[in-house]
Amino acid sequence: MNVNEISFENLPKAVAHLVSEVEELKLLVEKGQTPVLPQKRVPIGIEEACRIIGKAKPTVYALVRKRMLPCYKNGKKLYFFEEELLEWITSGRKKTLQEIENEAMAEFQKRPKGYRK
After folding, report:
1. Contact status, residue 71 vs residue 63, Cβ threshold 8 Å
2. Which residue in 38, 54, 96, 112 is a FRET match for 10, CA 20 to 30 A apart?
3. DSSP character for 46?
4. pLDDT of res. 81
5. Can you give the pTM of this predicted structure?
């Protein structure tokens, strides 16, 4: 919650937010843990993106042009985020034969007995 957002109308909401924050801090202190701060997302350039996904620069440009690779453009420069590139790689995972067989068996088991032949 932003400090500038506090007004008389949303005072109960602000107090509730502060109470929850204090409760979280209390739990962390009791457990002796330090609060986990979210990591900053740092953009990377095309060279680093090429290294991460293992593709040449012209291939990366082609994937960007076809809108197949997640990227950001500011001016003439392309930016990428490592976690998005890794997610893009994992989205292309092929299933193993065992996974395909398990899915087929599960689908077969769903069918009513009259339709199984």
Report:
1. no
2. 38
3. H
4. 95
5. 0.55
